[in-house]
Design goal:
Radius of gyration: 17 Å
Number of domains: 1
Largest sheet: none
Helix content: over 70%
Distance between the termini: 17 Å
Number of strands: 0
Strand content: under 5%
Order of helices and strands: HHHHHHHHHH
Amino acid sequence: MPSILLAHDVSSGDQVVLNNGGLLSYIWVGAKHMLTGYDHLLFLVGVIFFLKGFKDIIKFITVFTIGHSITLIAGTYLGIQVNEYFIDAIIALSVVYKGFENLGGFKNVLKTKSPNLLGMVFLFGLIHGLGLSTRLQSFNMGVEQILLKIISFNIGVELGQIAALIPIIFLISKWKGKSNYSAFYKASNVYLVIAGIGLFLWQLYLYYS
């Protein structure tokens, strides 16, 4: 379980790739990081479940991308340090939040209206970007072309995000036409909440250990 939960952690193999390659190696590592970034992808799955059509998906994913690009690029370039376990715990809570919202938690449990989704996606995008920034800052990037390396990593993250979301969007859109979609929707979002709580507790354990 620990090896699975740290699947998108920094590895010595990635450092070797960066040492031996140019800017393309940062794109590759960024894409790989997002493809194994289960916490980021779980949040996006929760967002996609809530949306009605392809235009909405593009709009919300773009807002999320803008948010995490801002903090990834600025946070890394300015050397803003955030404890990786603490920020990953907050990211885990974003997964819990989205599953809870999709299940009607605000209306049925808290008896209140859900916060503006577009604004929350942007806010969580900023938080996710800080998580990506902590990972990138864990690498030895040298002293040359720092900004270009950061931007290249961010491009890789976007490419990885697109590659991961294509099959997810296809699966959810196809399932919407099935008679058992309601059960699939509820079960998936319950699992999102459970997974988010598990990730949150694990990151807290790492933070305090």
